[in-house]
Amino acid sequence: MSRPPPRARPTPEQIAALPPYPGLPPSRIHVLSTPEHLAHAEARLRAAGPVGFDTESKPVFVAGAPQTGPHVIQFATATEAFIVQTRTPGVAEFLRAMVEGDAVVKVGFGLASDRPQLQRSLGLTLGRSVDLSHAVRRLGFKDAVGLKMAVAVVLGQRMSKSRKATTSNWAQATLTPQQLQYAANDAHASLLVYQALAAEGLTA
């Protein structure tokens, strides 16, 4: 299959002019905290095919301080997102099945940095997955591409990445609506980028 012509990296001004990435509505963002929630989510994810995947960690502001994350792991289908706080009692078996199992293909950005954190903090080895940072390079980019740029290039949309949310306390017991939306968007947008690339034969 022939590759599409290289795409130009849009400028910040060009990205700002794009329509906003809509994201999932709050009613489609689920925080998993009960056995019933976990069973429902596992069934939905196993039936979905490839799913969006990402993690969030409480930031470290002191040089040399240990990283204790990930504190949040998120999965997304095309229509809903599932948010797991890793310290919630009873989620270990679900995370092991979803993260390590090859039945659910995880697609996301920067998975190389997620792997050691998952192993160190949770004893989990990331199973079958696709790192889209490298897949997007097949569009003609020299370097790996992050989610915000990929959404602009592949989906033609502007994705907001709030620094306030990025650097917020992801280890807190109750996540804010802004944190939930941010986490859901990361996983959901990753899946949409993957689906668009797959349609062009660029994910194999």
What do these coordinates show?
There is one protein chain. With 204 residues, this protein is α/β, with parallel strands linked by helices. It contains 8 helices and 6 strands; from the N terminus they run αβαβββαβαβαααα. It has helices at residues 12-16, 35-48, 92-100, 111-122, 132-135, 147-155, 163-166, 177-199, and strands spanning 29-31, 51-56, 72-76, 81-85, 106-108, 129-131. It has a 6-stranded mixed sheet. A hairpin with a 4-residue loop joins strand 3 and strand 4 (81-85). Helix 6 packs across helix 8 (177-199). GO terms for molecular function: exonuclease activity. InterPro entries: 3'-5'_exonuclease_dom, Exonuclease_MUT-7-like, RNaseH-like_sf, RNaseH_sf. Residues 29-202 form the 3'-5' exonuclease domain.
